[in-house]
Specification:
Elements lengths: L8 H43 L2 H5 L12 E2 L15 E6 L2 E9 L2 E4 L4 H8 L8 E5 L3 E9 L5 E7 L1 H36 L1 H14 L22 H56 L7 H31 L7 E4 H15 L4 E5 L6 E4 L1 H17 L6 E9 L2 E8 L21 H4 L9 H11 L3 E7 L2 E9 L2
Parallel strand pairs: 9-11
Antiparallel strand pairs: 1-4, 2-3, 2-7, 3-4, 5-6, 6-7, 8-10, 11-12, 12-14, 13-14
Helix pairs in contact: 1-4, 6-7, 7-11, 8-9, 9-11
Length: 483
């Protein structure tokens, strides 16, 4: 399983700092170990040169056959004068060791060399320089090879064990020191990085608060700006750029809100001013139709159309005025409303207006009550049922259900009609959205404000409305709080 890299900038910077320090420590440690090994090995070569081949020469003409081993005194087996303990001496003739011994505190001790040892020693050139060889019985030795008087090969060596022990102690000490240094650096580095990135954390916190604000509409109060640090640093530059961006966003939101207020005020004023002339036109048209004298059919038809369109325009003006009031945040009535009775009345009205549809009710046994504006909630029901009746063919079954979920009341209007076109569904609750332009552009068609009123009233009651539609199944769901 692959390790997961750190995700935060703080963790990455700290990890990078520790990794760089670890690489540096490893480089220093390797260089120190290699340097110390080379220095100690050089000193060992100097000792070999100073000692010469006295011990190996003293073994040159001993008469015992190769492979004899045992302890002997210095006078009986080799000249150990000025020879350090552990000094190795050997005599090779034609690649075969005739004698091999090592200096001990009490004298010398013969050493038995294997065939592999003899091959390794024979392969070392007599170049006056030290060479490291691994002997079976003695392990690593630094040896110096010279030629004897009668064509044999004399080998003198010193053990590498003191060098290796010193190097190992340095490795252990370096590991402990570097480990402590990495631990301290990791902790201190994490604190330092955290302290250095505090302004960036404040910028992130401010950005989070901004992201939680409802910026879609209405007046928005942005949170205080992120504190700026040194503008010469990268973090300070980010904080400064972020604060400038917030300033531009705040200016844009202020201008947008002012534009919305002007448009809302215009819509409210225009709707209010249009109500009287529209009602007047409608009244005069109806009055003309009541004239007792003969009226040509063409005039009668024109007056009927004037009355019908005036009525339609009056409804549109009322809807626009209602939306303007809801947008302005004017409080609605807050009284207990028997939603069950509203549903019964609304379905009864819908059944009378659309007898060709099949209307079904699914209500709980106990009455469902919510706190709100009864008139506006009745308008929600009327708009949803009118939408189902107007956009589905005769014979469609429309089911209205009401149920409670914890502190919520859920009202659904379901039909098995053709469904809402998929390209219209995302904006179905926006104003002037029409599912069938041929129907709504025709005389008597809607203006596309019904569902937007449903959404606005539900939101004013602290609820929401949603749509789920496919061919053969369309469901509008309104959720209202019982409080």
């Amino acid at each position: 399983m692959r390790p997961v890299p750190p995700r935060t900038l703080r963790a990455r910077l700290t990890l990078g700092l520790v990794v760089l320090l670890a690489v540096s420590c490893a480089a220093v440690g390797v260089a120190a170990v290699v340097g110390l090994r080379g220095f100690l090995t050089g000193r060992l070569d100097e000792q070999l040169t100073e000692a010469g081949n006295r011990f190996a020469v003293s073994l040159e003409h001993k008469g015992e056959p190769p492979g004899t081993s045992g302890d002997h005194d210095a006078d009986d087996r080799g000249d150990t004068r000025r020879q350090a303990t552990g000094t190795f001496g050997a005599r090779l003739v034609d690649g075969t060791a005739t004698h091999a011994a090592v200096v001990r505190p009490s004298g010398t001790k013969d050493v038995t060399l294997t065939e592999r040892d003899e091959k390794r020693l024979t392969a070392i050139p007599a170049d006056g320089r030290g060479h490291t060889v691994d002997l079976s019985a003695l392990h690593d030795y630094r040896v110096l090879v010279s030629s004897g008087l009668d064509g044999d090969t004399l080998i003198t060596g010193l053990p590498m064990e003191p060098v290796e022990a010193t190097v190992h102690r340095l490795e252990l000490l370096a590991g402990i020191v570097f480990g402590l240094a990495l631990t301290v650096t990791g902790v201190v580095g994490a604190l330092w990085v955290r302290w250095s990135l505090r302004p960036l954390s404040r910028v992130a916190a401010t950005a989070t608060r901004v992201s939680e604000l409802p910026l879609a509409s209405g007046e928005v109060a942005l949170p205080p700006r992120a504190p700026e640090s040194d503008p010469r640093s990268e973090v300070g530059q980010v904080a400064g750029a972020f604060n400038r961006m917030l300033g531009h966003v705040e200016d844009a939101l202020t201008k947008r809100h002012a534009s919305e207020e002007r448009l809302r005020s215009f819509a409210a004023d225009a709707s209010h001013e249009l109500r009287t002339p529209v009602a007047s036109v409608r009244g005069h048209a109806e009055l003309a139709l009541l004239h007792p004298g003969p009226v040509p059919p063409e005039i009668t038809r024109a007056l009927e159309r004037i009355a019908a369109e005036s009525s339609r325009m009056g409804e549109m003006v009322d809807e626009m005025l209602l939306l303007a009031r809801l947008d302005a945040g004017r409080p609605l009535e807050r009284r207990p409303v028997d939603l069950t009775m509203l549903v019964l009345d609304a379905v009864t009205d819908a059944r009378a207006a659309g007898p060709g549809h099949r209307w079904t009710l699914e209500l709980p046994e106990e009455p469902v009550t919510v706190t709100g504006d009864a008139h506006r909630l009745q308008q929600v029901l009327a708009n949803l049922l009118a939408n189902a009746r107007g956009h589905t063919p005769v014979g469609t079954e429309v089911t209205v259900s009401l149920e409670t979920e914890d502190t919520w009341v859920v009202l659904t209007v379901h039909d098995d009609g053709p469904g809402v076109p998929e390209d219209i569904q995302p904006g179905v609750f926006e104003r002037f959205t029409r599912a069938d332009r041929r129907r709504t552009d025709a005389p008597g068609g809607g203006a596309g404000l019904g569902l937007s009123i449903v959404a606005a009233v539900a939101e004013a009651h602290g609820g929401e409305v949603s749509l789920r539609s496919a061919p053969g199944s369309t469901t509008f769901t309104v959720r209202l709080s019982t409080g």
